[in-house]
Amino acid sequence: MTGQRDVPEGMGDPLEPAVVDITAEVAPPEIDPAEAELILASATVEEVATAPILAAHNVTKRFGGLVAVNDVSFTIPDGSIVSLIGPNGAGKTTFFNIIAGIYDPTSGRIAIRNRTMVARPIRAWLEPILWVTPAVIVGILSALVFAAANNETVGFLGATVTLVALILMLLTAIARPDWYHRLLIRLGIFRSARPNDMVRAGIGRTFQNIRLFQNMTAEENVLVGMHIKLKANMLDALFSTPRNRREEIAARVRANELLALVGLKGVGGELAKNLPYGDQRRLEVARALGSDPALLLLDEPTAGMNPNETADMMALINQLRTDLGLTVLLIEHDMKVVMGISDRVTVLDHGERIAEGTPDEVRRNPRVIEAYLGAPAS
Ligand SMILES: Nc1ncnc2c1ncn2[C@@H]1O[C@H](COP(=O)(O)OP(=O)(O)OP(=O)(O)O)[C@@H](O)[C@H]1O
Ligand SMILES: [Mg+2]
User: Fold this and answer.
1) Is there a domain that residue 320 lies in?
2) Closest-lying ligand to the alpha carbon of 65?
């Protein structure tokens, strides 16, 4: 064999005859993101509600000359555990980072419940013009009225209203309510979602290399994950209002519930850096759960774990689905984990989706076996 790579445990016998080739599955049609948004605008509430939690359509990501993800499409059905596997450098983490809103794809799009969230921005530079337009219109009108009336009070009022219009539009652009989003679409402006938008849309994630706040306690780490859900504002915090105190108590209770859920009961006061490695990985999961996600992205959650810790993590992932109704997209190298808990498996190699199917179908797929073992020598 040439180009032989490590065969992951549980991958099956490469010499076993191939049974199914599921690589020929039909990919969703390529749709221009702006067009997709207009499709959404005319979609009924039922259509959106029944759409899959996440769908990737022809996603490509280039880093200079390197094609890290190449025309990848797949759908994650609600309540499923879907695994993304492939040899090192296959593009798995890059794909995750696109879903999480960290990278804009070079082409293609990611839709949540049929709504395009991530795609290459279209005319995004027009957005600041939209922010200032109402203020400019109000400003010009007030200047005209001031010129006609020659009254200082009118001038002062005009300037105030102009400033308020500008501040309101800026706040709207930050909060991005639905009507603002629809207005952008009407004007043909598409701005790809950022990580905070994706968290708000119900996506939580962990990282391949643990990225905890090491000098904060376990409980504080989870509270950071919950931040986006908290309603108290800066003034509430400054004056320690009853609302702020109530919310903080509730948040701490929830944080400790989440710690208990992932098997870290009683360690809330420990600094993250003092936790054993396996517990740090669990803490990352608890922090991701803090934002109350519907879809959880786990990037190699069992990396570096011993067999017992791995079995516990598998049980936890299953429990997250059954107890919290979560949908899970998992990147994993440990084939026992992948084959043991996945409903569907998608295989990437050199950025391309080379197979997709049930664990059994994938383990017997000749292209998958070749990707892991290398092509037979001729
Ligand atoms: N920010 C970046 N800039 C340039 N190249 C990148 C960047 N991120 C990833 N790559 C390249 O893209 C390819 C895919 O990397 P990626 O990390 O997505 O692979 P992976 O499948 O997650 O691998 P592993 O199993 O080792 O984690 C690699 O060749 C990598 O070097
Ligand atoms: Mg990776």
Assistant:
1) no
2) 1
Counting atoms of ligand 1 from 1, which one is nearest the CA of 86?
A: 21
Helix (H, G, I), strand (E, B) or coil at 100: coil
pLDDT at 185: 82
Tens digit of pLDDT for each residue in 311-356?
999 999 999 999 999 999 999 988 888 999 999 999 999 999 999 9
- Span 144-170, mean pLDDT? 85
pLDDT band at 110 (very low <50, low <70, confident <90, very high): very high
CA of 93 to the centre of ligand 2 (A): 4
CA dist 246 and 269 (Å) reads 20
Looking at the fold, whether 163 and 82 belong to one and the same domain comes out as no
41 and 137 together in one domain: no
- Predicted TM-score (pTM) of the model is 0.78
- Tokens 């390197």 sit at which residue? 66
Copy the structure tokens of residue 261: 């859920």
- Residue 199 falls within a domain, yes or no? no
- Say what the alpha-carbon torsion angle 85, 87, 93, 96 is, to the nearest 10 degrees: -30
Whether 32 is in a domain gets the answer yes
Atom of ligand 1 nearest to the CA of 92: 21
Nearest CA to ligand 1 atom 26: 88
Residue 328 CA to residue 23 CA, distance in Å, equals 22
In a domain, residue 243? The reply is: yes
pLDDT at position 343, please?
94
Report the pocket of ligand 1 as residue ranges, CB < 6 Å: 63, 66, 68, 86, 88-94, 208
Whether 299 has a pLDDT exceeding 80, the answer reads yes
Q: Can you tell me the mean pLDDT for 53-72?
A: 95
Kindly report the backbone phi and psi dihedral angles of residue 31, in degrees, each rounded to the nearest multiple of 5, phi listed first: -125, 135
Statement: residue 22 has pLDDT above 50: no
Residue span of the structural domain in which 240 resides: 204-292
- Pick the atom of ligand 1 nearest to 333's CA: 25
107 and 22 in a common domain: yes
Count of the separate structural domains present in the chain:
3
Q: How far is ligand 1, taken at its centre, from the CA of residue 66, in Å?
A: 10
